[in-house]
Amino acid sequence: MTDVVGTETSAGVAAAAERVSALFARIQDALVGWRDTLLDQASAAGGASPAAIDATVGALVIPVLREDDPLLVGAGFIAAPEFTGGDDLHFSWWLGPLEENPVFGPTSEPSRLDLASRSYSDYLRDFRSLEWYSMPQSTHRTHITGPYVDHLCACDYIVTVTSPVEQGGRMIGVVGVDVYVKRLERELLPALLAAGRPVVLVNEAGRAMVSTDPAVLVGDVVQAGEDAVRCAGTPFRLV
Questions:
Q1: CA pair distance 45, 14, nearest whole angstrom
Q2: Is the pLDDT of residue 30 over 80?
């Protein structure tokens, strides 16, 4: 009987890991499509103007943010200054409908991120040193940052997924999305609860993202044992 239960538990954890992989594969597939569209535009004459970028990115991300019960809370493109021909920041970034939070009121429609209205956004002047930009730049691969508290927009725990947009051997920016951790919980908890034992989804640094163990909170550091199960296509593990 013990062996049967152990086998069922192992299968349940493996199924939960597959659910995590499938969710993030869905996100990464969207980023690949957006990246390719932006590269097509960048290759066209005059296609790299800030106004053209904004129009293209808005057409890509706004419909996704308008979906019923959207997965994403934010999405867009952050351009390398060299790409837009200046030193100013160019965040072509949209926010989905936001819930009430301590800083901003609720919104019912997607809205463009206005950095001028964020008095504490000066740290973005050196955005190329931030993990969500520097890691795709150095690795040339999609990177997942978080969980962390987003004080710029959501005022809640989020995960950011960013992918490099590269042309002619140089990075011209990143496409990315933000997802509420609480939204990840809704997507992943059913599979985690079916695993047969308490499990915690942790990031590469061992910080908890989603947990069925009531003693483990988002952001807690969890030591991964030999029985940790990797979630293919992501840096995550179930412990």
A1: 49
A2: yes
Q: Residue 157 in contact with residue 106, Cβ under 8 Å? A: no
- Rounded CA-CA distance 157/163 in Å is 20
Tokens representing 37 are 């569209």
Q: State how far the Cα of 134 lies from the Cα of 129, in Å rounded to an integer.
A: 5
3-state secondary structure of 115: helix
Greatest Cα-to-Cα distance within the chain, rounded to the nearest angstrom: 69
Count up the domains in the chain and report the number. 1
Q: Is the pTM of this model over 0.85?
A: yes
Average pLDDT over residues 162-179: 94
Query: What tokens appear for 158 in the block?
Result: 């989020």
CATH number of the CATH domain containing 163: 3.30.450.20
Report helix, strand or coil for 98: coil
- Dist. CA 77–CA 94, nearest whole Å: 9
